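--- STAGE predict ---
source: upstream dedup step, 1 unique chain passed
mode: sequence only
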Amino acid sequence: MADILKHLDLNSVDGTRLNIDALYQIVPSAFTEVRDDKTGEISRKVNFEVLRRLLGDNATDGDGEMYQFTWVGKNAARAEAAKPTDKTLRPVPEDSVDWDNTKNVYIEGDNLEVLKLLQRSYMSKVKMIYIDPPYNTGNDFVYHDDFARPVAEEDLEAGNVDELGNRFRKNTDTNGKFHSDWCSMIYSRLLVARSLLAEDGVIFISIDDNEVRNLRNICDEVFGEHNFVANFIWEKRLNRENRKEVSVRHDYILCYTKMVEEQKRSLSLLPMNDKALSNYGNPDNDPRGLWKSDPAHAQGGHGTKSQFYTLTAPNGKKHELPSGKCWLYTEDVMNEAIKDNRIWFGKDGNGVPRIKTYLNAKERGLTPETLLFAKDASTNEKAKNDLKDLFDGIAVFETPKPVELIKLFCLLSSKSDDIILDFFSGSSATAQAVMQLNSEDGGHRKYIMVQIPEETPEDSEARNAGYATIPEIAKERIRRAGAKIKADSPLTTQNLDTGFRVYRLDESNYENVSLSPKEYKQDQLDLFANNIKSDRTDLDLLYGSMLAWGVRLDLPLQAETVDGCTIYTVNEGDLVACFSSGITDKVVAAMADKSPLRVLFRDACFKEDAQKINIYEQFKQALDWADNDAFNNIRVI
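--- STAGE serialize ---
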């Protein structure tokens, strides 16, 4: 009975296990159970012979000529994406805004590690992703991917990495892996990010000519070529640049959906603009409202025999079909439409028949176009000037994306309560875009921003203004933009969320006790009873456990004290935790009174196994749980 309270698995999701589970859902007959000779444990394995037979002639062993896209380090990048991490996210309430009420999240840390940590809590829950990754132009290319360099010693000697293994170097085209390093960086992150997208989720990726070809190939592999939506061309500048052979006036934004559906749009229609609305009128005072007229005939090659006839107008005038055309309706349907005043013959009744299309007959909108002009999506120059104005004339960030551009993508791909993710968030233009759109349409979209704590350049305006890292700039931007949006919003700001919770990526909350007890000194044996690091707080443990147990980071939290013990309740019972020692029956009763879905304790709180058994039985009885429910719903760390 000593193991009756199960330990919570604190590592992130194993990407290989995700793939195996997904394959099992499709072809369960290709799996078998295998016993491990050493441990005796039985596990589910893929039987490749059976799988090959199920695939028939559609399987290949990789030999011979075939179409594929590869680079040096691709296999290592794929393996890194699947490898779990034991790192954690630590809450920073003192750096946040409206911690208790906000649904927005800002995370400082390497985005590959962060994406892995988000998988359990946010898998298939993100509606839109927008990212503006490094363009690989030869400027500083900052990332921490050990798998991207085959010989760490060579990199250290060459000055490509520091003593901690962090890579800070220029990815110049003289580097033999100029494209390979970049491809490995983006490939691993997109593999993990895809799992966070909802089934109808959409991703937008800004890029330029340096890597657009490679990015398109990578996205075809990660998301599927059939899930390609568009390659938008954005007019990023209005002025001619005379320093180059050709003035580059545009960037690209690749767009993919996770799972394309027939009969359903991947992107929403854009709102009707004044030009489109000007086509609608009501010259005959039709009670059905505004309408416009459309041709009443179609291509004759697609028509049936009943669509070829002479149409007689109400005034008796005969209308013959133009050559190669047929009427859109059969004669009977057309006559019914004429009687119902749904066919327009002009003000004098002698005009060519046209069908009346009513503005309010269905949801109207404009189909998005691949050309995004500056008048609609703004420019880089305006984005920089707008940010400069927000910071009292200081140019704190060199390459922000326009809020208008990202807001347009939010409008195309998200609804009121959706989650929007940006894991190369830079100055957090995406956060401002989400808040701005919510203020305009009354939505409650939530954002997750992720940014590596990259230092601002020495002697830069940002550094001189006191901003040592990009996250410091971004958080201040959100604070200032949120206040301005609230002040300028045409809607009531009572429910407008301009706050954010800050989390920082850090090493595990727990000391490594992977060695056997006999390998430790006597004064180290306490680690086996309590391996939590001394600088970690209850909130560190709580939020780390929430990530491990699939509970979202934005949910409300309440704390109360019962018999000297602190009880934490997440979202009115999604998770109830207590890390205090001396847990009494009264504490357990108060926790059970929350009707929790999950219950969490600190293992070191219990001096003997009898306490665990007692608590197990108390929760079973109070919540009417079966043995299996109690075993799975009560965990210790």
